[in-house]
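Q: Give me the 3D complex with guanosine-5'-triphosphate.
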Amino acid sequence: MDRKIRVLVAKPGLDGHDRGAKFIARALRNAGMEVIYTGIRQSPESIVETAIQEDVDVIGLSLLSGAHNILFPKVVTLLKEKNAGDIIVMGGGVIPVEDISYLKEKGIQAVFTPGTKIGEIVDFINEKVEKRNK
Amino acid sequence: MTFPDKIVDGDIRSIARGISIVESGGIESDNLLNELYNRNCSYIIGVTGPPGAGKSSLINLLIDEFKHHFRKIAILAVDPSSPFTGGALLGDRIRMQQHAMSESVFIRSMASRGHIGGISGATKDAIKIVSAAGYDLVIVETVGVGQSEIDIVKLSDTTVLILVPGYGDEIQVMKSGIMEIGEVFVVNKSDKSGSEKLATTVKWLLKENYRNKSYLPPVILSSVTNNTGIEDIVKAVLNHKNYIEKNGIDRDKIQERIKDDINILLERKINEFIQHHLKYPENIEKWVNLVISKKSTPYEIIREIKDNMILDIREDI
Ligand SMILES: Nc1nc2c(ncn2[C@@H]2O[C@H](COP(=O)(O)OP(=O)(O)OP(=O)(O)O)[C@@H](O)[C@H]2O)c(=O)[nH]1
Ligand SMILES: [Mg+2]
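A: Here is the predicted complex, encoded as structure tokens.
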């Protein structure tokens, strides 16, 4: 049995800067994960559909444009509607500290702000996925 | 509904799970494939060619055109796994993302997971899953490799080979052995210079290669940038489909694939059996030491092992 951790790295919203998302994607690949990268300006609907078709364990959302309080919870809601609420959602980008607890309340399981060590993200994923697959 | 039934019913989550299961292998995978074997038959197109030739971008455009001819289309896009970390960055999908919400299109990225030859070890089993789910067309995109990708030829009913100008001269085209693997040849990026010349060379080489054959692969110029040649590719694929169906080649191909499946399973069983009886690989160190200390030779060891194994199996039975 050789179950690989699969992660979708997606950028919802309108901003076109995907340097951060690509950096995360590469780092997770280097940590032995299979990473699907779908590019910029993805709607929450297409992110969720993609996550389901790709059977990912984790969705990593990256956003700089400030619409995270709407778009991140939207992804969580849509996943639940599609019976895929077990997929772990994490977020990253320029997110004010005061929004983090709101996002966690809405089901985003972790929020990583710029400067987070990549090892921390990798550990988070490994731990969560192990629990999920139990 | 049982899990296999959900796949047959077309439930997307179950199909996606099913593919993960066959990718992981093991008994769960065997059981699932056993349930779904021969459930349905789809037409399988393999798309191959060197890195960056435009395979994914072309498939993206072909999907719309194929929708006129097939009910449901599944894309299995293979990208390489890193041999060092086992991880993979799966980027084919980014070119096809406009179809993410389409009800009749299913896209799955697969990592090659150490398998060489342009596809992953589980690709043929993933095809069985989407077939069972009623996708009547399956398009497999291989890893971008330039040499003869035999694996994809076995797997697909029609293999489409994508070439681009700058690929090399005549001699390189001949050397690479790729002339033997395509049934539809595409020279993509025809918006760039050198494409006409490459197409002429390929046409000429094909005429030489297929001199006494009843099917001559067409050579099509295409450009994703200008959206040209797409309909021609679809026509050429359907033409080849027609050809193999008329000549019973499709049945031969299915037979070959079943043979392959049986061979692979048999090989695995024999290996498991032998490993169990030989206590291999636990014993390998011991055998090496016997040879190093000049107490035995590999030939003697094998003879002894064989005799002992026969006794062992007799007892077992
Ligand atoms: N000028 C031009 N560029 C093209 C054409 N088709 C594809 N491209 C570009 O070529 C690059 C590679 O395209 P892909 O579709 O990713 O190629 P691929 O063969 O799938 O690549 P791999 O899967 O990485 O082997 C992209 O930047 C495309 O935009 C074309 O017809 N003309
Ligand atoms: Mg590609």
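A quick observation: The mean pLDDT of chain B is 90.
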